[in-house]
Design brief:
The protein is 35% helix and 21% strand. The chain is of the alpha/beta class and 100 residues long. The protein has one domain: Oxidized Rhodanese, domain 1 (3-Layer(aba) Sandwich), CATH 3.40.250.10. The longest helix is centred in the C-terminal third of the chain and has 12 residues. The mean pLDDT is 93.
């Protein structure tokens, strides 16, 4: 399992990675990162349906939950990446870029 700041990851994003938003469907509906699939924590069993030959990059709202699930998947043989800072950090960076 790797840990990478979410903004750093998005600058160097790899096309073959699977980006997973662990937030609830409601939070996801308000916005997410382009290309992310939503697998809410309450549907955690769906994570194990993801292919093991891809890197699974997980994020949540602030970066705490994603670390726990990245470790679980890593222990199950997945190549995982925990995106530190979560969606909140991503939004803060976007606001800075747009000078808001």
């Amino acid at each position: 399992m790797r840990e990478v700041n979410i903004c750093d990851y998005l600058k160097e994003r790899h096309g073959g990675d699977i980006l997973v938003d662990l937030r609830s469907k409601v939070m996801y509906s308000f916005g997410t990162i382009s290309g992310a699939v939503n697998i809410p924590v309450e549907r955690i069993e769906k994570l194990y349906d993801l292919p093991k030959d891809k890197t699974i990059c997980l994020f949540c709202q602030v970066g705490e939950i994603s670390g726990q699930f990245a470790r679980l998947l890593s222990d199950a043989g997945y190549d995982t990446c925990d995106l530190l800072g979560g969606y909140r950090e991503y939004l803060k960076e976007k606001l800075k870029e747009e000078n808001l």
